[in-house]
Amino acid sequence: MERTAQLKRDTNETQIEVVLSLDGSGKGEIDTGVGFFDHMLQGFARHGLFDLKAAVKGDLQVDDHHTIEDLGIVLGGAVREAIGDKKGLKRYGSCILPMDEALVLCAVDLSGRPYFVMDGVSFSADRIGDMSTQMVREFFYAVSYSAGMNLHIKVFSGHNDHHIAEGMFKSFAKALDEAVTIDQRIKDVLSTKGSL
Fold this sequence. Notes:
This protein has four helices and ten strands, in the order E-E-E-H-E-H-E-E-E-E-E-H-E-H. By secondary structure, the chain is an alpha+beta fold. Strand 8 and strand 9 (about 130) form a beta hairpin. Helix 1 packs parallel to helix 4 (about 160-180) and helix 2 (about 65-85) packs parallel to helix 3 (about 135-145). The mean pLDDT is about 95.
């Protein structure tokens, strides 16, 4: 059975619709109005082998904050809904990903307990294309808390902002793909408590 979720969020600041399939082939149909963010989400879909549709109408006349943060909230909620009862999930995933001179580690635990750590990230510019570099952190924070996941991202090296950000999104995709993988040896949930 394909694990999918479709979520909408309508506020005075953003109107968002997301459709996510965890068992996809890497197709991304992304339109947030923020070009570089679209590029990052396309990479997330492709490298995680998720099918992702994301449409956002946000108050970009203000800035990109609400558009990116709110999409993170909705995407995290879609992940949480799509994984369902978590039976058979590997639960944990990690990836160390090289992106030219940048080297990024991402580790995920679908524990149901949100926690976010971002370490070693230092952007040299205020923006990458039309996306504020401050919003990289806000996006991952929103995803982790909305999904109920423990998410760690650490940048070991890198000086090109584009490469650093892209390494973060792609390593997150690979780590999440591993965490949502079904392992036939796991008959219930992977926890000594018996629940997640």
